[in-house]
Amino acid sequence: MMRTLACSAVALAAVALFGCLPASTSGGDASTTMDTATSDTATDTAPAVTYTKDIKPIFMVKCAPCHTTDGQGGHNIGLNYADAMLPVMTIDAPAGCFKDGTAKTMPKTIGECTLPAIMEGWMPMAMGCFNTPRPDTCVSLTEQDVVAAWIAAGMPQ
User: Fold this and answer.
1) 146: closest CA among 52, 78, 56, 49?
2) Which among 5, 122, 148, 151 has the fewest CB atoms less than 10 Å away?
C-alpha cells in the first residue's frame, strides 16, 4: 500500500514537473484547447482606461473648479493631460505623492498624486471627503477605482 502511494506521488510530481497533462481536460480535440501562456482573456476584453475617455470627465467635475489656469491649484489637470505628467511641486502634498514617502524629495507626477490625494481626503480640498458617505463634491469610490486603474495602466492619454 505504501509503495503504491509513493509511486503515485512520484508519478503526479513528474506530470506536474514535465507538463504531461493535456492543455484541455474538456475532452475536446487540440483545436479547441487554449494556450494560456500566450492568451490573456482578461486584458483582451477589458477596455483601456484613458485620460481622455475616463479620467478627464471625473477631473472636469471634481478638480477643474480649482485646478485650472485661473484657479488656485497651480495646474490644469481638469482640462489638460500634459499637466498630469508634471511633477508635484508642493511638499504639502500627501506622502503618497513622493517616491521617497515622508522625505518628500522625489516627487511623483501630478497624475500619480491624484490617488493618494483623493484617498487621504486631501482633494478636493475642504470638501469633507473624509466623511462617509462622501459628499457629492468628493470623488466617489467608483471614480477612485477608475483613477487607480488609469494610474496602474501607466496613465495613458
Assistant:
1) 49
2) 5
Peptide bond into 87 cis (omega under 30): no
Task: Tell me the three state secondary structure of residue 87.
Answer: strand
pLDDT digits (tens, 9 = 90+) for 87-124: 998 898 999 999 999 999 999 999 999 999 999 888 88
Per-residue pLDDT tens over the stretch 33-43: 434 444 444 55
For the chain, give the number of residues: 157
Q: What are 57-69's pLDDT values in tens digits?
A: 999 999 888 887 6
The span from the CA of 130 to the CA of 44, in Å, is 36
Nearest 10 degrees: Cα torsion 154, 123, 62, 115: 20
CB atoms near residue 15 (< 10 Å): 11
